[in-house]
Amino acid sequence: MTSVPYEQSPPRGSPGRRLSVYFYRHPRLSLALLLALPLGWLAVAYLGSLIVLLLAAVWNVDPFTSQVVHTYTLDNFRRLFDEPVYRNVAWRTIQMAALVTIADAVLAFPIAYYMARVASPRARNLLVVAVLMPLWASYLVKAYAWRIILSGEGMLNWVLGPLGISFHGYSSAGLWLVFTYLWLPFMILPVYAGLERIPSSLLEASADLGGRSLRTFWRVTLPLAFPAVVAGSIFTFSLTLGDYIAPKLITSQQFIGTLIYDNHGTNLPVAAAFTLVPIVVMIVYLVVARRLGAFAAL
After folding, report:
1. Architecture of domain 79-297
2. Residue 142 Rama label (left phi>0; alpha psi -120 to 50; beta)
3. What are the domain boundaries of the chain?
4. What is the pTM of this model?
5. What does the DSSP 8-state code read for residue 244?
6. Residues 220-226: contacts with CB under 8 Å, at least 24 apart
7. CA distances from 67 to 5, 80, 268 (A)
8. How confident is the prediction for the chain on average, in pLDDT?
């Protein structure tokens, strides 16, 4: 019989063994060293960029040379509150983000419910692939495809033409359709995960107590799945709030992303100050979402 070679464990007094024992006895130090690199990268790349952004927001622009002057002032923030254009753009963007979130929630819930509670395992796998497939395509390809669909001679007007209806696609309504399509998978997947985690015993208990299907949905299914809907809304709301490519392609109206993009080359401090608006909005939104239990559903 041939002996099977094996690796001998290091001697008890070896440096590797002593180091392993030391980290075993100090788990907090081991965790700190493990997270040092990713947390350092987060602090430098993410928090560092936010600090630079905040510094740029309190700078000024020389009116004669149009050069950025490193003198600290709060005039940029006062300008955001004093000039109606900035308030109107912020309100228009928040409205669009809210409408897109509502539309995606209404569309995603029945799809996710069928995937989680009705479809067979084979059909469920196919539907998951179908939901993920649009994410494999380039964002720009999808945006330009929708620009063609919404044009005057595009597919949408070709379908509506026999009905005597003409749709002006390059508008806020057209942009709403584009955003609803782009972010729909980000709503379906969290809702599907939330519905899949609901125990079937709760639905059976509701039926045993005399609850019909509609009552069970409103009193059991929807409350348990609501945190997952809120979790999905974080994606749809934030992605709509900061997008600037689709608004540039679909409509001539200004949104937060397009206004920042237009000002970053001519008036960097104002653009940096306006960038803090969606950050503050999302902080408030995340606080509300946390109270509604969204993070427990992720």
Report:
1. Orthogonal Bundle (1.10)
2. alpha
3. 15-50, 79-297
4. 0.83
5. -
6. 221/113, 221/195, 224/194, 224/198, 225/109, 225/191, 225/194, 225/195, 225/198, 226/292, 226/293
7. 72, 20, 9
8. 85
